Amino acid sequence: MKIEHICETLRKENVIQSKNIHFKKLNGGSSSEVYLVDNTYVVKLNKKEVIEEEVNFLQKYQGVKMLPKLIYTNLAEAYLVYEFKKGDTCYPRKNKQLLLEDLVNNFINKYEMVSSNQTWGWSSSPTDSWHRFLLDRVIDAKEMLKDKLLDNDFSIILTLINKKEKENNDAYYIHGDCGVHNFIFHNNKLSAVIDPTPVYGEPIYDLIYAFCSSPDDLTKETIEAASSHLIKGNKSGRDLYEDVTIGLFLRLATCLRHHPADFEDYMKSWKYWREIVAK
Question: According to the lineage, what is the superkingdom (predicted)?
Answer without folding.
Answer: Bacteria
